[in-house]
Amino acid sequence: MEIQRVGGSSFYSKQYYSMRIDPYVIDTLMRDLVAHSRSSAAFLVYLQLYRHTHGAGRETVALSHSVLAELIGISKRAVQTAVAHLLERRLIRRRKVRPTAVPVYAVATPWVRKQESPGIA
């Protein structure tokens, strides 16, 4: 497998793998973000962040706006607007160590109920 370096992060290239996407993301969230919110860029950013977190078995991913823009094929400004929209909708969380640091994102899936641990009777 060949790994390509983009913006300090490793991304797979020339090898495809499958990942499971929660049907809610395609069936409901896509329509909500694209049709209702009129933000197809927000859906693309969410999907890319979902791929690098849930799809890679990680809780967070550090990606700059420039890297996200390059990966998705949209402008950096469109990424900034989309991230702001996703933060407002609480679909992602962002953490920065410093104002100029690369943000670390966590993707929320509020429609998924957390499994309760079995209680001791």
Q: What topology emerges from the helices and strands here?
A:
Layout: E1 2-6, E2 9-13, H1 23-36, H2 40-52, E3 60-62, H3 65-72, H4 76-88, E4 92-95, E5 104-107
Antiparallel strand pairs: 1-2, 3-5, 4-5
CATH class: Mainly Alpha
Strand sequence of the main sheet, in spatial order?
Answer: 3-5-4
Strand count: 5
Spans with pLDDT under 50 lasting ≥5 residues?
A: 1-8
Indicate the proportion of strand residues: 15-25%
Give the oligomeric state. single chain
| Helix content class | 25-40%
Overall spatial form = globular
- Secondary-structure-based class equals alpha+beta
- SSE pattern: EEHHEHHEE
If you had to describe this structure to a student in words, what would you say it looks like?
This protein has 121 residues and is of the alpha+beta class. It has a single domain (2-107), classed as Winged helix-like DNA-binding domain superfamily/Winged helix DNA-binding domain (Arc Repressor Mutant, subunit A, Orthogonal Bundle). It is built from four helices and five strands; from the N terminus they run E-E-H-H-E-H-H-E-E. It has helices spanning 23-36, 40-52, 65-72, 76-88; strands at residues 2-6, 9-13, 60-62, 92-95, 104-107. A three-stranded antiparallel sheet has the order 3-5-4. A hairpin with a 2-residue loop joins strand 1 and strand 2 (9-13). Helix 1 (23-36) runs antiparallel to helix 2 (40-52), helix 2 (40-52) crosses helix 4 and helix 3 (65-72) crosses helix 4. The longest helix is centred in the N-terminal third of the chain and has 14 residues, at 23-36. The model is unreliable at 1-8 (pLDDT under 50).
